[in-house]
Amino acid sequence: MDELLAKATQGVDMDAPDAYLHIFFNLMAMVPWAALFWWNLAFVAVGALLGWWRGRLLAGVIWALVLGPIGWIIVLLAPKSAKPPPLPRSH
Predict the structure, then answer these.
(1) Which residues cross the membrane (predicted)?
(2) Domain identity same for 5 and 20
């Protein structure tokens, strides 16, 4: 914990009125944003696939976007749509 506090307060004048803002930005700089983005994209892709399979594509995307893998459970437990997804056209 001391190491995290040292990183968060690095270069911050604790007597400055906006010290909390500098600490917040230091903490946000430590978050792995790229990894979080790609994981979220994977969660939404699986949610879309499960939603399509259950006949609720939009619900699958939204639940996965909001709750991640927990949204998958909600989509799987919801009743299946009465209307099946459309089949691709053959030319």
Answers:
(1) 20-50, 57-78
(2) yes
The phi and psi torsions of 31 (rounded to 5 degrees) equal: -80, 135
pLDDT tens, position by position, 20-67: 898 999 999 999 999 999 999 999 999 999 999 998 999 999 999 999
pTM > 0.85: no
In terms of domains, do 27 and 38 share one? no
Q: What is the total count of domains within the chain?
A: 2
Question: Which of 3, 20, 46 has the alpha carbon at shortest distance from 12?
Answer: 20
